[in-house]
Amino acid sequence: xxxxxxxxxxxxxxxxxxxxxxxxxxxxxxxxxxxxxxxxxxxxxxxxxxxxxxxxxxxxxxxxxxxxxxxxxxxxxxxxxxxxxxxxxxxxxxxxxxxxxxxxxxxxxxxxxxxxxxxxxxxxxxxxxxxxxxxxxxxxxxxxxxxxxxxxxxxxx
Length: 157
Hints:
Blueprint: H1 2-7, H2 22-25, H3 30-35, H4 49-59, H5 64-72, H6 77-86, H7 94-101, H8 107-116, H9 119-124, H10 127-130, H11 134-152
Helix pairs in contact: 4-6, 5-7, 6-8, 7-11, 8-11
């Protein structure tokens, strides 16, 4: 059906942004989503074997400092997106700060980061709830930085 729609040049973009597109709805099936790559803001989800190796090398790096360094120098938005979506968020926010600061970080990757980290939760916490732990403050700071960057792109969370 998707191929037929594409054959008839159905409009893929939405004035409401990438989250309101067929590409976003199809993201659970990489092959279908990859058919819709002409959607503004879409990113290729299917990785080749070399890209997957690079993602795995970063995600399974024992040293968080080295992981952050590796993320900072990435030039591929596809690999960066895969890292964000494959990251174990229980390991802390530091690598995601590196992803956020990377110029290759796509809009959809930022939106995924915000959702995966439960940004709304961290922004709703008051100072008293955050004050008992420095790691909570780091998560809140990441949510704030993501919100600022997403709002600067004129897209909605």
